[in-house]
Every structure is written in C-alpha cells, then in structure tokens.
Amino acid sequence: MSTYWDAYPNFVHNTTAPLQQEFKLLAAQCGWSGEKYKKEWARCGVEEFSHHFGRDDNRLAGWQAMCALVQVDEVPDSIKKCKQVLRTTVWVNIFDLVDAKRTGEPVKKHASAEALRKYSKKHKKIFPKKTAKENRFLTVLLIEMF
Where are the domains of the chain? Predict the structure, then answer.
C-alpha cells in the first residue's frame, strides 16, 4: 500500500518520527504555506491514518486495533461496542493516534473533551471535520472544536 510520502521521492522520510514534525520538514522543502499547507496537512493525516488503520471500517479487526492502541481496558467484541467505547470514554487527538503507530509510544489520552480541545488548539493538531466525516473510523473520535 502506498503512503502519502511516496508522492515525494526527493523527501527523506523518517517513518518513526512524529507526523507533524515530518510534515513540517516536507512543507518547508516544498515551500507550502497558507491554504496549500492546510490542504496537504489534512491529506497527509487522512492517508497516514488509512495506512495504519486501513480503509475498511466494516472490519472488526480495525476497530479493535484502535481500541487496543488507546488502551481500552477490555477490547470489545463487536464494531458497535468499539464505536461506543471510542465515542464516549476516550479522548485522543487523531494525529496523536497516528503518531502512536509511527513512533511506538503510547497515545496521549486526555481526561475530557475540553482537555483534548485545548490541547489540539494549542498544538495546532486540528483534524479537518469535513475530511474526518468521510471515514467512519475518524468520525467516532470527533469532538466540537469551536
């Protein structure tokens, strides 16, 4: 499966570095700013997420992998239960979820939606809502940002 980075063969990509760090290096190399930067950052996030979690949101294994990564105490045995747990008890930044897969570090969890909101704004890690709504994996992780 190809990745976002395959489109930039002149960029030396570190697959274990945090996503935002790598993207900033690529953006500087390509001279991206403004809307182009935002558009590419969103595309990078979606493609990296899909690369690590798959695109088939009808597969229980993908949902269970997300639950395991965010350290749910008991990984549910159905997609419906996985969605419920992820939607109601887990507050993680989508970009941090990808970073956990990339770096091998535990995903940073937040105590509440408000804590996640503040963190996401402060670190400029706001996943585009329109883009996230195109993927059911991502939809369950969305919170109101503004």
Answer: 18-139
- Residues near 21 by beta carbon (within 8 Å), at least 6 away in sequence: none
pLDDT digits (tens, 9 = 90+) for 77-130: 999 999 999 988 899 999 999 999 999 999 999 999 999 999 999 998 888 788
d(CA 101, CA 107): 8
* Angstrom distance (rounded) from CA 42 to CA 4: 11
98 neighbors 52 (Cβ within 8 angstroms) = yes
| CA distances for 45 relative to 75, 78, 102, angstroms | 25, 26, 12
Contact indicator for 68, 86 with CB cutoff of 8 Å:
no
